[in-house]
Amino acid sequence: MPLLELDGAGVSVPVPAGSEPRSGATGEKALLHPTSLRLTEQRIGIVGANGSGKSTLARLLNGLVSPTTGRVLVDGLDVGRRGAEVRRRVGFCFTDPAAQLVMPTCVEDVELSLRRLERDPARRRERALAVLAEHGLAAQAHQSVHDLSGGQRQLLALAGVLATDPAVVVADEPTTLLDLANSRRVGDLLMALPQQLVLLTHDLDLAARCERVLVVSGGRVVADADGPAGVAAYVDAVDRGQA
Q1: Does residue 212 form part of some domain?
Q2: pLDDT tens digits, residue range 122-140?
Q3: Which parts of this chain are annotated as the region Disordered (predicted)?
């Protein structure tokens, strides 16, 4: 498995003028306090309340967010210095697939993902169609992305990420907008991936299937355990009003 490392990595943002600083007298707010982690498991869940800092942590892993303190490494590559190389290794799937689906049709969207890997247009189209078929979207290949169901859109967004064969897939609440059947379908797909998976989710049953779960609260990792134990720690913190 790839090695993901946070070495004192933290993220702070300036407090708007006239606001009360929330991190001492520095005029900054910490979205993620300095954090050190070594992540080697195949399936890693991250749970926490909205605004807890879990998305900030995950976005550090492929450079969508840059640390203001410390550093982030992917197999020894510094994300801040070698971001392009890291992003080829770490694919990111957003909660809302509309943030990723930018081309008119399904096949064109997957082709966009493949543009750096396959220069020949005919071969790129062939590979894109194969990717869609692999994920049960062959019949929608030439359909507008706007005409897909919510589950189909999320599958298409995942297909575009997986088409480039990243070593790591970061999925930020990928089942939040889905009904139960599609949530299960997407969850099962993610859990079966050969890649290392970093999964942010409010679906605690899905999180419990991970080898390791991080609980994030107030911009800090407050619990770090195996899947069931991590979920139990989060539920306990919620019950005590501490998450």
Answers
A1: yes
A2: 999 999 999 999 999 999 9
A3: 1-29
